[in-house]
Every structure is written in structure tokens, then in C-alpha cells.
């Protein structure tokens, strides 16, 4: 589904990703772990097409298409979802409006019929309920005044509404208490654990992986994948630290 | 023609686009554009090049005729126009005035006089091309209330407004301006809270593009105690345009317990555009509360990428953020039909400018 080959990317002329290769098949959940500053978020942003993140070498194909050719909004319409480590606040734009615009923009570009206000609201309410996000937060401006945990739940509500084929979830577990972690973990399984979908789960800790079992675990250090393995690799990392395992 | 206007060396005119006004006055005639009234009850006045179109108008309580010209450089040009005078306890439906310009210059005066406890709503719309100049004098008696909303949506040329308002005891004026066309604009206003406990909101949104210049030059004077004023202006400038917001609050020595707020914010859609802000406070009383904020910025790149990552194309994302930016200023309009019409004008402008 996603194939990254020898990816080099830089920000402001500074190389962050230094020859990263990774392949994720449909039906799989991959975890990416690694020390702070390794380039995990950078990988997410490059996949999403954030301006300023320049790819200098390598390739990314998504379902056989060149992902790097596409504009950020086209990548979303193609089925790529990026769950942000730090979700952005948008004063003056309500969550409902933001999400309806998002979903309908994607539907329109795929040649599907946009959802009506009522249809959309029904969908949004169901997703908010499933993730324990209070209904009135749908009406509030996007992420404005939300706690860290509420922002992360809101990311998952968005994912539930958009129903993407592929999700990159960047530290979705940080800032969550143990109950929220379980709810978010259940949400990821419910929305994304399907034979036609795949997930790249960026995390620091083993604890989210107790709820969302990864098929593969990779260590990202200094802009490269330095080690890959099965779920047991996450436990090894938790016990011994990155320095030991990634070397 | 000679403009006979102050020069830009005068502080109050420093950002005025005199060349733009002269060019607008010299615009060659265009065919009369379509102009529509909002679906509201009440008086409907259609002025074509400053002359009332009788057949298309319905005056209700409004009179049309000669009015005393003002003293102001802009205001003195208008000698004829419309007036609304409400005696105590009278009620009136909204007054709609549509100003159509088909080239050249046109000047109209207006007088709104509301006696004790009366209230009125006025909605004005500018369409067409040319220099449209208006002088509006407002006198509000004790506890009288006026809501006035003006939208400037000409396809070319210039609109200048000179507003002079005097508020009596406990009177309230809510003025909301929207410039969302392809014309230059000068909104020139002097508002005096002449009675105790007056309330004035005067603000709006200027949306400007190409090489146009739009500005407001507003002075609110608190002459008596316990008054409240809010000047909330938003300017959005695209291309090589220039938007200027100059808002002054003056508090006289014995106008204690005055609460004056100024919020001036500019948004640059392109780096080649300019926004000038000039908040001004002249306070001679000691027990007053005057808050003011003035900022200029660009659209939040992080928010734009966040929206793109959810599938929203860049022009739409920019339009949503810009709309949110001007919403504060337009939300002041109480009537839902009017508010929706103004929001639609702002939307249409954004869709085509981005
Ligand atoms: N906007 C930026 N400009 C310059 N350097 C940046 C920028 N953003 C991140 N970096 C650098 O890129 C490296 C990788 O950052 P990041 O991808 O956020 O790491 P991680 O998510 O693994 O903690 C870090 O050294 C960081 O300082
Ligand atoms: Mg990170």
C-alpha cells in the first residue's frame, strides 16, 4: 500500500531524513519508535506534504501512485490521514464546519456526492460518542481551548468521520490518561483495523501498543530505520532503551 | 474636475486615495447594473447616480428633497437626499437604500433624526461604477436606537462616506460597514456621545485587492460620563492593495466612567499588500477604561496545512480562515437577513480574491 524508498528530506537546508525505506501492506499496522528528534514527525509531515519539508531524494508510492506528485489536499482525498502530534487551533472555524468541509471536499474530488448538513451531523455525533468527545465540542472552534487529551480525541473523531485508507498517527497517545488511552486505542482498532487499510503508528511508549497490536515495529534513529522486528521489539525497547537497541 | 479635497499632507487624509477618487469621477458611463433590495418590509429607496428612481422606490415615512449641506470637505457637496424623522414613540420598518452609479460622480445627503425612545434600522448598498459620495447626519434623542449597515460592492470607482452622529442620553448607534467590491473607499466619521450613557459601535470590514486603497478615518468623542464605544475594524488586503484603519477615541475632561474599546486588525493575503493601523487615544478624564489592540498578520501557515491535510484545497482553506477573521466585525449586525446578505458579499469577495 505504502512504499518509501531511500527517502531524503530536509528543512531549511538541514537534512533530517537520511535514506529512509519502509513498506506497509494493506491490513497491517506498523509502529515507529525512536528517540526525540529522530525525524518521526518529519516523516509524517513529508507524507502529508507540508510546505517547507523538501524531499531531495528517494520516492514514496501510495497504491502504486507517486504520492510526492500530489498536493496535500489531494493526498487526503487519495486516502492518507495525518494525525498531528500537536493539533492546530483554528479560531473562528467550528469543528463541525471544518469537518464537513473536509469530508465533502474529499468526496467531491473523488466524484462522490457531498453529505447534507443533517447526514453529516449524524455521522459526526456518532463518532464523537464513540470516542467520548462531548457533543458541544463539535460546535466549538477547532481545538481552541481543548485540553491535550481532548485534542487527541478530536483527531480520532476526525479520522472516524473521514474514514481514511491509510493513517499516520503521530504520538496520538501522548497527553492521554489511561482511560482515554483505551478509548483511543479502541477507536484506532475500530476505524482502521481492516484488510483494506493500514496504519503507521508513531509512539514513544509501549503502552498504546498494548491496545493496538502492531504487526511490525521499526526503530527510527537519526533519519533512518535502524531496526525492524515484530511486536516483541517494542518490549525490548521499553526494557533496554533506544541507545542499546538501535545501535 | 477639481476635487477640492484636503491634501494627503493633512494627518486625517494621509492615507486617502485622492487620485482614485478623481479617476472614479472620470469613469465613462456604464449600463445600469441590476440592483436588488433585500426581502424585508419597509421603505425602499433606489438612487441612480444620486437621483431617486420614483417608480422603483417606496418611501413609507422617508422624505426626499433638499437638505442643508454640511461643512465637511466631502459632506458639503451633497445638497439633496433623503431624510427619516421619527417622533417620540414612532416605529418604523427597516429603510433600505440602494445606490446605483453608472459612471461620473454623484452626491447624496441623508438625515436620520430619531426622537426619544424610537428605533430604526437602515441598510445601504452601493453598486455600479463611479464616485459615490454620501453625507449622512444622524441625531439620536434620549434612548433612541439606530442600527445602520452599509455595504460597498461597486464593480469600480470609489465610495466616500461622511457620517456625522450625535447621540443623546442613553442613545445607541450600531454602525457596520463592509467594503467588499472593486472600488476604493473612504469612511470618514465623527461620532459624538453628547448625552450621558450613550452607546456607540462603529466598525466593519474592508476587503481590498488589486491596487485599490480603502480606509476608515473615524473619531468617536465622549463628551459626557458613562458612555461606551466600540470600534472594531478588520482589514483584509490582497495583491498590491492598501487598507488603512485610523480610529480615534476622545474623552472629554468630565466624561468619567467612559468605556472605549478599539480593536484594529489587519490581514495580509499577499506580502505585496499593505495595512496601516492608527489607533489613537486622547483622554482628558481620569476615571476611564480604554482598551485598544492593533495587529497585522498573515494567514496561519500551520492552520492552512492542517486544513489541507484534511482535504480542503488551499483557496477554500484561505477563504475559511479569512472569513473567520472578519466574522467578529460583521456579527454585530442584529438582523439575520441583513447579516446573511453581508456575509454572502464577503464570501463572494473571498472566493474571487483567493
Ligand atoms: N521547522 C524546523 N526547522 C528546522 N529544524 C527542524 C524543524 N522542525 C524540526 N526540526 C528538526 O528536525 C529534527 C527531527 O524533528 P522531528 O521530526 O520533530 O523529530 P521527532 O518527531 O522524532 O521527535 C530535529 O532535530 C528538529 O530539531
Ligand atoms: Mg515528533
TrEMBL record, chain A:
Domain of life of the native organism = Bacteria
Keyword annotations: ATP-binding, Nucleotide-binding
GO MF term set = ATP binding; ATP hydrolysis activity
CDD domains, per database record: ABC_FeS_Assembly
Q: Give the ABC transporter domain ranges.
A: 2-247
> Which SUPFAM superfamilies does the record cross-reference, listed alphabetically?
P-loop containing nucleoside triphosphate hydrolases
Protein family per UniProt? Belongs to the ABC transporter superfamily. Ycf16 family.
PANTHER family, alphabetized: ABC TRANSPORTER I FAMILY MEMBER 6, CHLOROPLASTIC
Name of protein: Fe-S cluster assembly ATP-binding protein
TrEMBL record, chain B:
PANTHER family, sorted: PROTEIN ABCI7, CHLOROPLASTIC
Q: Report the domain of life of the source organism.
A: Bacteria
> Know the name of this protein?
Fe-S cluster assembly protein SufD
Domain SUF system FeS cluster assembly SufBD core positions = 111-325
Biological source species: Sphingomonas endophytica
**Pfam families, alphabetically?**
SUFBD_core
